[in-house]
Amino acid sequence: MTEDATTDGPTRLDELVEVVHVLRAPGGCPWDADQTHESLVRYLVEETHELIEAIETGDRDAMLEELGDVLYQVLFHADIAAATPGEGFDVQDVAAHMTAKMVGRHPHVFGDAHAETASDVEAVWDDLKAREKPARTSVLDGIPMGMPSLALADKLLGRAEKVGVTAAGPAVESPDDEEGLGALLLQLAASARERGLDPERALRGALRGLRDDIVTAEASTAGA
Fold first, then answer.
1. N or C: which end of the chain has fewer CB within 10 A?
2. In the prediction, which pLDDT does 198 show?
3. Which PANTHER family does the record match to this protein (predicted)?
4. Closest to 165 in 3D by CA, of 223, 224, 124, 219
5. Does 129 lie in the same domain as 106?
């Protein structure tokens, strides 16, 4: 661990927040000052993938650096919001909102609710999210359809289970570990390439069908 700032002075995080502010303020960096939430999206995606790679390869030094890069993106967006009329929040507001959210989402830790297992916790979360966001009427609400297709598949399959929908198709013998699963997925991608098929488009097409099945099941339940 590196030595942090004294308790009487600014923390390292305070210093980084100030660096972001100075770079974007008049007399700072013209490039930083020109950025918007929209222009930074590609950097957020890139930095996130770099962090994922560092985690998956077990590279401690790279993880330290990439966590900082992702944190910087958060601080950058917060500073833009603080200077944008109609947005008017800063990183302290972001932190306060997240603290309240996490405390509220964990009544089994900070309140009187009881949850002994991970499944119990998920049930508590589902109930809390339903009360927090009553406008969400579908299990599909809140799922960004622009997610990478395999991650989206995992998410949609989880939501499908909640409404009793299963993904139809021929039975596939699944490997018992991620190494085997990775080899199988690579084999499928290679086979698709040989046949001139687009595996990404194919999976997204199947996911649209699964999404339609979920919507149908929800409509059937609502009309029952």
1. N
2. 87
3. NUCLEOSIDE TRIPHOSPHATE PYROPHOSPHOHYDROLASE (PTHR30522:SF0)
4. 219
5. yes
What share of residues in the chain are helix, strand, coil (percent, to 5)?
A: 70, 0, 30
Residue 199, both tokens: 């595996």
Structural domain total, the chain: 3
Instruction: Determine the Cα–Cα distance for residues 28 and 22; give it in Å rounded to an integer.
Output: 6
Express each pLDDT in 48-75 by its tens digit.
999 999 998 999 999 999 999 999 999 9
102 in the same domain as 50: no
Task: Please indicate, yes or no, whether residues 185 and 203 belong to a single structural domain of this protein.
Answer: yes
User: Residue 117: which domain range?
Assistant: 90-134
Percent of the chain scoring above 90 in pLDDT: 45
Structural domain includes residue 199: yes
* One domain for residues 116 and 153: no
**Residues 83 and 128 grouped into a single domain:** no
Note whether 163 and 139 are within 8 A (CB).
yes
- Among 37-41, 100-104, 119-123, 170-174, whose mean pLDDT is lowest? 170-174
Query: Could you tell me if 140 and 215 are in contact, meaning their C-beta atoms sit under 8 angstroms apart?
Result: yes
| pLDDT tens per residue across span 157-175 | 888 888 888 876 666 778 8
